[in-house]
Amino acid sequence: KAGVTQTPRYLIKTRGQQVTLSCSPISGHRSVSWYQQTPGQGLQFLFEYFSETQRNKGNFPGRFSGRQFSNSRSEMNVSTLELGDSALYLCASSLGRGSTNEKLFFGSGTQLSVL
Amino acid sequence: TQLLEQSPQFLSIQEGENLTVYCNSSSVFSSLQWYRQEPGEGPVLLVTVVTGGEVKKLKRLTFQFGDARKDSSLHITAAQPGDTGLYLCAGDTRGGSARQLTFGSGTQLTVLP
């Protein structure tokens, strides 16, 4: 069974540009969550999508957005990039049934560098 | 904002030694998870603890959830170089069926041969 796939693996952008990251969850998983990981702030929750609907959202500005497609694949978009957006962006998938013991599977992430 | 404090932040030990990592919060979590992350990879789930006072063992790793479900610990016996990595605790904040994990800042463990 293939794991969570994130593309691209690395990305370099300049301030003011926008970027789109992609995440393909494990087959059969309907929930996709996005996290930002930085050395200073650690892992922070961005948002969660389930059945093409945003089900939960963290405390990030509106420049961060996402969507989920009918096949459960998800994309996140960051507009008007800032230097502080440089981070490892992680996607995680799960069945999404809400069980306390439900396992979360992370992809290897997209390393975004904003110059 | 719910915070999870992990300690120590860095730990460097010799192979064969024992160690304990702590994860503390002022908030109650419905469950708490422990992950290990290696460079260039995403976190990998080690265990989920749900019940206050629960103890789970995974080979040389022992996980404990505090009685009040506000804190947890990870104990590694006879550490090996393969245990090297970033250990993260994460508390589950539930909004209905939605899921939002609050992560601790992590403990970078280095086990020297």
Word description of this protein:
By secondary structure, chain A is an all-beta fold. Chain A has no helices and eleven strands. In chain A, strands 2, 4, 5, 6, 9, 10 and 11 form a seven-stranded mixed sheet that branches. Chain A has a four-stranded antiparallel sheet with strand order 1-3-8-7, with no helix packed on it. The model of chain A has no long low-confidence stretch (mean pLDDT 94). In chain B, β4 (32-37) and β5 (44-49) form a beta hairpin. Chain B has strands at 5-7, 10-14, 19-24, 32-37, 44-49, 55-58, 61-65, 71-76, 85-95, 98-103, 107-112. The N and C termini of chain B lie far apart (40 Å). Helix content of chain B is 0%, strand content 57%. In chain B, strands 2, 4, 5, 9, 10 and 11 form a six-stranded mixed sheet that branches. Chain B has a five-stranded antiparallel sheet with strand order 1-3-8-7-6, with no helix packed on it. With 113 residues, chain B is an all-beta fold. Chain A binds chain B through residues 4, 31, 33, 35, 42-45, 48, 50, 55-56, 58-59, 90, 92, 94, 96-98, 100-109, and chain B through 1, 30-31, 33, 35, 40-45, 48, 50, 88, 90, 92, 94-106.
**Secondary structure tally, helices of chain B:** 0
- The run of helices and strands of chain B is EEEEEEEEEEE
Largest interface, C-beta closer than 8 angstroms, per-chain residues:
A-B, 30 and 29 residues
Radius of gyration of chain B, Cα only, in angstroms? 14 Å
Strand content of chain B: over 45%
Could you give the order of the helices and strands of chain A?
Answer: EEEEEEEEEEE
Number of helices of chain A: 0
Helix content range of chain A: under 10%
First-to-last CA distance of chain B = 40 Å
Largest sheet, strands/sense/barrel of chain A: 7 strands, mixed
Structural class of chain B: mainly beta
Number of strands of chain B: 11
Low-confidence stretches of chain B: none
Shape of chain B: globular
Low-pLDDT windows of residues of chain A: none
3D shape of chain A: globular
CA radius of gyration of chain A: 13 Å
The number of strands of chain A is 11
Task: State the helical fraction of chain B.
Answer: under 10%
How much beta of chain A, percentage-wise?
over 45%
What's the assembly state of these chains? heterodimer
